[in-house]
Amino acid sequence: MSRWWRFFAWVLLLSNLVGAQEPTPSRLVVLDKVFAPMPVLWADKEPYAPIGDWLAALRLRWVPSQNGVAVETPHHQTFLWTTSTTEIVLDGQRTEVAPLMERQNELWVPLISLARVLRLTVIVNAEKQVIKLASALQEISVLQTSLGWKVTLTFSYPLPVPPKTGALSQPDRAYSDLAGVSLGDLPIPSSPDPNFVVRFRLGQFSSDPPIVRFVADVAMPATFQVAGKEQGRDGREHWHLLLQPLAQRPPWLGQVQCVSNASHRAVFQLFGWFGGQLTIRQEAQVVSVPLPTPPLLPSEFLSMDDGLVRRAEILQTKEGWSLQLALREPATAVAQQDESGWLLVIEKPFFTRRAWLIVVDAGHGGKDPGAISPQRPNQPPLVEKHLTLDIAFRLKRLLEQGGYRVLMTRTDDTSIPLPERVAVANDARADAFVSIHINAFPQPGAQWGTEVYYWTPQSYPLAERIYRNLLSLLGRKGNGVRQRQLYVVRHTFMPAVLVEPCYINHPEEEALLRTEEFRERIALAIFQGIAEFFGDLTLERRGE
After folding, report:
1. pLDDT digit string, tens, across residues 252-262
2. Strands 181-182 and 173-179: what pairing?
3. Which of 24, 114, 246, 429 to pair with 413, CA 20 to 30 A apart?
4. Domain limits at 328?
């Protein structure tokens, strides 16, 4: 690395630390997800965003490290990024980057540098305060097969969802929408068969969020169907589509992918066109699915070490090709059709789950009252420490009724130091930690709504599920799932969240908090989020 670049990086870091402006509410578009308002520091050279759940939209995992974070990509490659990093090596490629910025105990990521490392396209509009991170469509190839024309689309970064396909008439055309993708300069293949394909077209169908549409103008009714995907050694992702006339379309299989394989449930995606219903044959602990053809692409099976499915293979028998799954325990297989083909879902109808241990932490207590509602005529003020204990007892009852074990950090009006609250969970080796609080704002009535806080990546799924259930049952404004270095979620070893369901000094929410029915709904929403996180299938079946 040149000495000039090292000098520039340190100057950039120091100038940002010393003279950076206050964060500005901005719009951050990450593939197909929109995060707004997102606090962004608009430095001279790069916009910076705080490390948070928006990174999960890129399927990145991150773990806090000294002065930075260790990041794992979707392809399970890792790199370290700190407040002094000026170069990152990924896939054998060296990329010069700006260091992370530390501000008020938060780490901020330089977005242009991140895009260079991950080979994303970055679009920055400082005037409108918009930043977009998108996968780049880099190559299109067309190959004739016995089943139709196979179109391969190559992307710089994994797509957030499979391509969506469809057909239109007057004139006839088939299309595929590619979410989270930006369009650059690349050659478009000429028609391989003018009697069938008039031409191929490409355009930016939507810019926010970015969607590219690939179109085949055809001489007769036709359709695109997703055949599957492959991962290149260079980290690029290749999606394959099959273009066929609708008339006399033969059935075919593109690829089989193992989407998940947990101890109680496994899901397999079968890409292709089957011409009708998917047939499932099951004898004892073996599931067999007849296939119309051998797969066009190599199949992707996850590790079968611990899941419900212990072995998956595609076999040729006297009757033809079939997918055969050997199960560890008795389970039921069902098929669900989607636009890419079929989902094969295998799950145990009933399973004995472990009695998970949940630590419920009622915030504040004793000499620490927490937030207090404004004085009202003829009404006693609400005190946060009393509300949190009330909701904690309600949550304890619901959890125990659901078969969970519960520990509470306090059961009366006692002041418990934060380290002791954390020690209760860590010493008991709890499976989850939930801290209950009620929010307040310096200007009464100026803020309202629901927030859930977390710190570690393992805690985000729990936070997201509790947040979603709170919004559904409470109907308050959603302020987001937020990553913060709060003591009780930063020092616990297990998934840990801090819940702020509403504001004690907002008049409408204060009135709601005075009712037992609303406090019961808070507890029920938290309970349902915990149950979803631990995969309680009985709850899913009841639709609760």
Report:
1. 999 998 888 88
2. unpaired
3. 429
4. 252-347
